[in-house]
C-alpha cells in the first residue's frame, strides 16, 4: 500500500487545480458562475421512470472526451461537488454530477429542497441501493450517448459517494475505473464481481474507513481485481474538501494537490 507524505511536495502548492485559488463556501458559487466552460442542468430518465437532475460540465477540447460521474457526499449535490466537476472539465473530461436525492425531497424536490443538513443526511441514508444503482445506470447511459464523449466512463465519489462508487463497480461491468475518496469498501465477498480497476484515496487519520483497506486489498488480490489504495499522511477524512478551503493548512493542501494530480493522471491513462 502506498503512503503519501506531505513532505514529498513541500509547502508550495501550485498548478491548474489551485490556479483559481482555494474555494470557500461563498466562493464556490462565484467560481462556477465565472467558469469559461459550458455547464448545464439536465434531466435524465431512468429505466424505472425516475427523473434524475444532474449538472454536467464540458471541457474545451477538440476530440471526444472521457467522461466521469461524480457522486456526491452525504451532504447531497452541493456547489462544492459541482465545482469539482467544473475543475475536472478544466482538465479535459466531461464531468456529470447527479443529484441522487432528485424527487426525494419536499414536493418532489432534490437536495436543495430540504430544510436542513440533517434532513439531507437522513434522506441519503434511506436511499434504496437498487434505486441508486438504477440512477447511476441511467447517468452512465446518458453520457455514453453524447456525441462529445468517447467510450470511457469512469465513476468517482466522496465519503458516502465513495462507498457508492465501490458498490457501483460491483454492479456495473461497463465502467472504465472507479475512484474512491475516503468511502467504505464493498464487502469482501463482492470484490470478485468487480471488473474495473479501483483507485483509493484515504486520509491517514480516518481509521473508521481505513480499517477495512487491508482486508479489501487481500480480497482484491485473491480475485485478480486491481485495487490501489493510497493513504495521505497528516490529513483525515474529507481531506480534498478541506484542502480546497480558504483556511486549509499545508498538509491538506499538499494532500489535495497530490491526490488531484494522481486522479487526473489515472483518468488520462484510461
SS summary, helix count: 10
Query: How confident is the prediction overall: mean pLDDT?
Result: 93
Structural class: alpha/beta
Note the beta-strand portion: 15-25%
- Runs with pLDDT <50, length 5+? 6-22
Rg, alpha carbons = 17 Å
- Percent range of helical residues: 25-40%
**Major sheet size, sense and barrel closure:** 9 strands, mixed
Mass-distribution shape: globular
- Taken in chain order, the helices and strands follow as EHHEEEHEHHEHEEHHEHH
Strand order of the largest sheet: 1-9-8-7-6-4-5-3-2
Walkthrough of the structure:
The chain has 270 residues and is α/β, with parallel strands linked by helices. Helices cover 37% and strands 24% of the residues. It has helices at 16-19, 25-34, 79-90, 117-125, 129-144, 160-171, 207-210, 213-222, 239-243, 250-268, and strands spanning 2-4, 38-45, 51-58, 65-71, 94-98, 149-158, 177-181, 198-205, 227-236. It has a nine-stranded mixed β-sheet with strand order 1-9-8-7-6-4-5-3-2, with helices on both faces. Strand 4, helix 3 and strand 5 (94-98) form a beta-alpha-beta unit. Helix 2 crosses helix 3. The longest helix has 19 residues, at 250-268. It is globular, with a radius of gyration of 17 Å.
Amino acid at each position: 500500500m502506498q503512503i503519501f507524505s506531505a513532505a514529498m511536495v513541500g509547502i508550495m502548492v501550485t498548478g491548474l487545480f489551485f490556479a483559481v485559488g482555494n474555494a470557500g463556501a461563498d466562493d464556490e458559487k462565484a467560481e462556477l458562475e465565472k467558469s469559461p466552460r459550458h455547464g448545464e442542468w439536465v434531466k435524465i430518465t431512468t429505466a424505472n421512470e425516475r427523473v434524475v437532475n444532474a449538472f454536467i460540465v464540458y471541457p474545451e477540447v477538440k476530440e471526444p472526451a472521457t467522461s466521469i460521474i461524480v457522486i456526491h457526499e452525504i451532504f447531497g449535490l452541493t456547489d462544492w461537488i459541482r465545482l469539482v466537476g467544473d475543475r475536472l472539465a478544466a482538465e479535459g473530461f466531461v464531468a456529470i454530477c447527479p443529484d441522487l436525492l432528485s424527487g426525494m425531497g419536499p414536493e418532489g424536490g432534490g437536495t436543495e429542497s430540504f430544510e436542513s443538513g440533517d434532513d439531507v443526511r437522513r434522506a441519503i441514508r434511506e436511499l434504496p441501493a437498487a434505486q441508486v444503482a438504477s440512477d447511476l445506470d441511467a447517468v452512465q447511459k446518458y453520457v455514453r450517448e453524447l456525441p462529445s464523449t468517447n467510450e470511457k466512463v469512469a465513476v468517482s465519489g466522496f465519503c458516502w459517494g465513495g462507498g457508492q462508487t465501490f458498490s457501483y463497480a460491483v454492479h456495473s461491468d461497463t465502467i472504465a475505473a472507479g475512484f474512491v475518496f475516503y468511502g467504505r469498501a464493498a464487502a469482501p465477498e463482492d470484490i470478485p464481481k468487480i471488473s474495473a480497476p479501483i483507485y483509493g484515496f484515504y486520509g491517514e487519520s480516518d481509521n473508521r474507513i481505513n480499517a477495512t483497506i487491508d482486508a479489501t486489498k487481500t480480497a482484491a488480490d485473491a480475485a485478480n481485481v486491481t485495487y490501489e489504495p493510497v493513504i495521505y499522511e497528516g490529513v483525515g477524512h474529507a481531506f480534498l474538501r478541506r484542502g480546497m478551503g480558504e483556511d486549509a493548512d499545508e498538509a491538506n493542501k499538499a494532500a489535495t494537490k497530490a491526490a488531484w494530480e494522481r486522479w487526473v493522471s489515472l483518468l488520462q491513462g484510461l
